[in-house]
Design goal:
The chain is mainly beta and about 140 residues long. It is built from no helices and twelve strands. The protein has one domain.
Length: about 140
């Protein structure tokens, strides 16, 4: 539900954590703040009564360009995050093709956390140090 996501239009910020191989081995961490303006427009907007969308074309906040939080039935709910740019933190080690990758999105207001575990088959190298992971 939309309420599970908190209220990024006013108070809720998010932290994305990526763990590699071992859920205690932090690979990357990025923050997406509440409120704010991005390129002269509000960074956050509502998606009807289902959720929220964050957009920062300048990727000023840790390199995050887009975050979609959409509630609903299990087959319709989704969380999508896209990041790029030199502001995206550089991991200390690369993702290899033999270990799972755990991704968590933490809500700072109500401590909700969403998690997905990607197998090596779910993670694709997109070249130039880029990765794309999608749950089938």
């Amino acid at each position: 539900m939309q309420a599970d996501f908190g209220d990024p239009l006013n108070t809720t910020s998010y932290t994305l954590c990526v763990y590699h191989a071992d859920p205690t081995e932090l690979f990357m961490e990025v923050d997406v703040p509440a409120v704010g303006t991005c390129g002269g427009q509000d960074c956050w907007r509502t998606i009807g009564t289902k959720g929220y969308k964050y957009r920062d074309r300048g990727e000023a906040n840790d390199g995050v360009a887009k975050l979609i939080l959409k509630g609903g039935d299990a087959d319709k709910a989704k969380i999508v995050i896209k990041g790029r740019n030199i502001d995206l933190p550089t991991p200390l080690v690369g993702i290899d093709d033999t270990n799972d990758v755990t991704v968590q999105l933490h809500n700072t207001d109500n401590a909700n956390c969403w998690e997905a575990v990607f197998t090596p088959d779910d993670v694709r190298r997109a070249g130039g140090g880029k990765y794309k992971a999608t749950i089938p």
